[in-house]
Amino acid sequence: MGIKIENLGVTYGNHRVIEGLSLAIEPGSFFTLLGPSGCGKTTLLRTIAGFIDASTGRILFGGSDVTRLPAHRRNIGMVFQDYALFPDKTVNDNVAYGLRARGEEGATMRRKIGEALERVGLGHLGERHPAALSGGQRQRVALARALVIQPQVLLMDEPLSNLDAKLRLQVRGTITELQREAGITTVFVTHDQEEALAMSDRIGVMKSGKLEQVGTPSQIYRESVSAYVADFVGAANTIEIDAPAGTAGQGTASIRLAGHAMAARVPAPLTGPKAMFVARPEDISLAPRGEGGGNRVAGTVTGRQYLGGKTSYVVEIGEGITLAVETHGDGHDRHVPGAAVDLGFDPQKTLVLAS
Ligand SMILES: Nc1ncnc2c1ncn2[C@@H]1O[C@H](COP(=O)(O)OP(=O)(O)OP(=O)(O)O)[C@@H](O)[C@H]1O
User: Fold this and answer.
1) Is the CB of 151 under 6 A from ligand 1?
2) Which residues contact 128 (CB under 8 A, 6 or more apart)?
3) Ligand 1 within 6 A of 37 CB?
């Protein structure tokens, strides 16, 4: 069942948090709302759930307008960052909660609970209380509780944030697997870009209550529409430059970076006299001075961190501008601080975006 959001506005008192937001989420897909703290992700998710009223606009589930329906009539499953389990109930009773509210009981209910707990790998822990479970197990119970009612939409608010790195990866795998298996339309909130890239069919990057960009993980990463998106999704060098002349349309342009001339891609028309130069550290090549190919800029290594499979360099290119560069492969740590180098830029992967 797809979700459609039309021109949504949400206010707290007279503080407008979501403004004119429209979005279509494909049936059965995994959609992630990604953005920094305070951008409105949780507010948007809770409005989709029905816990917060929309002040303007509409929300549709599978074509039906649910904007004025209370949360318990929207047939959603919800998973929270802090698990929100009932501490005085057993795992079985926690999972039973939504089923009982729907009037289910007896053998059918027990079978469904058993199956849901099996699916999250906790079939043997039904009689325990939440206090006797690890964080990862608690979140699996919360997931079983959300899915056992066969909701039409699954909403998750930072469900992995309270888990340590190893558990986060495990529960991440469980969520992805169950979501695909059940084919349930899912909206997932996170501020963790790696989580978003790894799990999602599509991502919406939010900025101040609006969607700055919506796309597949690779579109968001490779074809960022703004320096804000590029910087938020992975690392990026972002430097303000004079907008190149003659870029009313799209294409490649000649730009100047710290006095060096080079070519870069302008994916969308620029407005205004300034623009942002955007290059990811792994897209910049590094060679000893004089040995670089075309489209290069001379610089001096000022910092180096050996990280095993890769090396991070800081290279100064003049006018006080430094760039982060990342190298992989054989001899990736061969440039020493103080070395004169050439930085090579692929004109297709070096972007000039509106500032
Ligand atoms: N109940 C409330 N009353 C008033 N303002 C609120 C309320 N809840 C959130 N806000 C404000 O609305 C804005 C968006 O908050 P929201 O929690 O949706 O952001 P978020 O992107 O989910 O952030 P985080 O990642 O920190 O949870 C923030 O400026 C926040 O201070």
Assistant:
1) no
2) 90, 91
3) yes
